[in-house]
Specification:
alpha+beta, 8 strands, Alpha-Beta Plaits, globular, 5 helices
C-alpha cells in the first residue's frame, strides 16, 4: 500500500462545488481507499491505496462525478514526491504567507513565460510552479487559470501552511 496526498481543484470555493468532507471520506472508503484523512474544506486528502497515482486520480475523479455530479480535477502525489516539492521550494526564505505551490498535472514543456505580475514571481521546477505572491494569493496574476492556459496542464494551488500540514498528516 502506498500513501498518497491527493488535492482537488475547485471544491467549496465561493459556494461552488460543495463537497462535505465527511461525505467525501465515506465515498473514498467505498472506493476501497484506506486510512482516509481530509484537511480543511478545500479538497485536501491523505489516503492509502495499492493503485498507482494515475489510477488513484481517475478513480477519485469518477467517484466524485458519480456521487456528487462534479467534474473536478484530481492530482495525487506520493509522499516522496510531496517531500521533493517542499525541498525544491526556491522561495523558502521569503515570508511564509507569500509562498504558494501550484501543483501541475504534468511537467510542462515550457518553463517560463512573460507576465507582468508586478512584484510577484514564479519558478517552475518539475511539476510544481512555485509562486512568491508578495501581496498575497488573492491579488496575484499568477493563478491556476494562468498556469493552465500558458502550460497546457491542470493546476491547483496550496499555500505553504497547507502543503506542510498535508505532509504531517501522513504520519
Amino acid at each position: 500500500m502506498k500513501t498518497y496526498i491527493v488535492i482537488l481543484r475547485g471544491i467549496n470555493v465561493s459556494g461552488k462545488n460543495k463537497l462535505p468532507m465527511q461525505e467525501l471520506r465515506v465515498m473514498l472508503e467505498g472506493l476501497e481507499f484506506s486510512e482516509v484523512k481530509t484537511y480543511i474544506q478545500s479538497g485536501n486528502i491523505v489516503l492509502k491505496s495499492s493503485k498507482e497515482a494515475l489510477e488513484v486520480e481517475k478513480t477519485i475523479k469518477k467517484g466524485i462525478s458519480k456521487t456528487f455530479g462534479y467534474d473536478v480535477p484530481v492530482l495525487a502525489r506520493t509522499v516522496t514526491q510531496w517531500e521533493k516539492a517542499i525541498a525544491n521550494n526556491p522561495y523558502s526564505e521569503v515570508e511564509e504567507k507569500q509562498q504558494y505551490f501550484t501543483f501541475l498535472s504534468a511537467i510542462p514543456e515550457i518553463k517560463y513565460f512573460d507576465i507582468d505580475a508586478k512584484e510577484d514571481t514564479y519558478q517552475i521546477i518539475e511539476d510544481v510552479a512555485y509562486v512568491n505572491a508578495v501581496g498575497g494569493y488573492g491579488k496575484t496574476k499568477l493563478t491556476n487559470n494562468l498556469f493552465e492556459k500558458k502550460l497546457n496542464v491542470t493546476a491547483t494551488t496550496r499555500n505553504l501552511k497547507t502543503t506542510l500540514k498535508l505532509l504531517s498528516l501522513v504520519n
